[in-house]
Automatic annotation (TrEMBL):
Residues 267-277 have a biased composition (Gly residues). Mg(2+) binds at D413. InterPro entries: Fumarylacetoacetase-like_C (IPR011234), Fumarylacetoacetase_C_sf (IPR036663), RraA/RraA-like (IPR005493), RraA/RraA-like_sf (IPR036704). This is 2-keto-4-pentenoate hydratase/2-oxohepta-3-ene-1,7-dioic acid hydratase in catechol pathway/regulator of RNase E activity RraA. Keywords: Magnesium, Metal-binding. Its cofactor is Mg(2+). Residues 211-244, 260-297 are annotated as: Disordered. Residues 24-227 form the Fumarylacetoacetase-like C-terminal domain. One of its GO terms (molecular function) is catalytic activity. Residues 283-297 have a biased composition (Low complexity). SUPFAM superfamilies: FAH, RraA-like. NCBIfam families: PRK08245.1 (NF006093), PRK12764.1 (NF009399). Substrate binds at G390, D391, V392, L393, R412. It comes from Microbacterium immunditiarum.
Amino acid sequence: MIETHQEAHGTDPRFFALPVRPGKIIAVHLSYASRAEQRGRRPADPSYFFKPSSSVAASGGFIERPAGTELLAFEGEIALVIGTAARSVSLDDAWRHVGWITAANDFGLYDLRANDKGSNVRSKGRDGFTPIGPRLIDARALDPAAIRLRTWVNGELVQDDTTAGLIFPLAQFVADLSQHFTLEPGDVILTGTPAGSSVVGPGDVVEVEVDAPDAPGAPASGRLVTTVSEGSGPGFDASVGSLPSVDDTQRAEAWGAPELVPAAPGVGDGPAAGGSGADRPTPESSPAAGAASLSSELRTKLEKAPVAGLSQQLRKRGLNNVTIDGVRPLHPSAKLVGTARTLRYVPNREDLFKSHGGGYNAQKRAFDAVGEGEVIVIEARGEAGAGTLGDVLAIRAHARGAAGIVTDGGVRDFDAVKAVGIPVYTVGAHPAVLGRKHVPWDADLTIACGGATVQPGDVIVGDADGVIVIPPALAEEVADAALAQEDEDAWIAARVAEGHAVDGLFPMNAEWRARYEAETARRAASDEEAR
């Protein structure tokens, strides 16, 4: 059996999870009962296709969805790595020729699938379309009927099956293929995907893990992490081959079922929140992108209304728990008004930070997706022992037109963030990076920030007094009431300055109220005549 070592394949990082660069990669078309049920067909025997070794990619990398295409789909799979040569081996003898197993992702571009007619040469053979790794599991210690496969998209579990759900046992693939050609050490067999495979788009993070939870030591491959990016370049040349094309059949198979296909999908669309949920929006079009719900008139009112006044009006309406406590502004004189876009950190755990902290994580996705007039609100559990953003992310938010940032955690690069000029509220400065205390977990969901519940699209207003959260349906009413109260308070202050006693004036009794309303009516009439 060959040994695992990087020297076997030089320094090419694509193959560091494998013993050698594979001479052959053979993939099974349809192998899990759950997938067969979803597809409405159950094969009597296995069928296969080849993938080039140039399609292999390492964990932690990016996969490009080519420009002008729509249907990039992930497929979490168990990869078998051949340890000793197999030629015409029996079913009973086949498993001993498997050296290792690990996780794989058999990405496919359904836009190119129809003309391949089952060969999948173009739809699945592209560079980077076969991530494998990150660690090998010794197959000799495993029961091949008790191996688990799981896939996550943006942290959401979307595939969870075991080899007990296979139509054909793993050893059958080895025995069957060995009838036709020699399986050589280092060759890889991709053993098919269960139900749950679906479409992903730029910004999505797909993770695949294979393990044997019932085996001694519960060996696991670790999470194979791949981030989807938008491809750039010239696209496809019709003079040398067919162009990408999609129809309802390809959409249904890419998404997993007809009912999962989003309404009127377009070229370049993708769920971006991942998974097989067709109703999941892209980061650029999330319901969190609620800046448009603030009219210019309402925004102007909120810019004039003090947070203290807004708080008073919300309290009158039974809402007392709407202040984000413990945060202070970097720019006390700057007013913050916008709609919430939320980001959540969970307490650091080293294995979770390894899987979620790097690459195009939730933090980066949130700052890349924030829209004009939106406020990034971060749940950091009041933990000030690490930064939750730095100057680069503040610059990114500012460049995208964000209205501000609110975090109940720390800020690193404090002076540099302050110099960017975007309104930022934080519990204070801290030099440590995110991973000391936090794991960036998910975005655009209901969070808790500074003891207040914040939902995407909530109206956020801040000034030197602090930050308040206003339900969108109440924003206009509360702003009008707060401004009216400001006028009243200013009139009362002027009377106190004239020497009147506070008693009976603040709050106003009936006599003072009548006087105030009379003066207000006269002033309004005068203003009307002037117009």
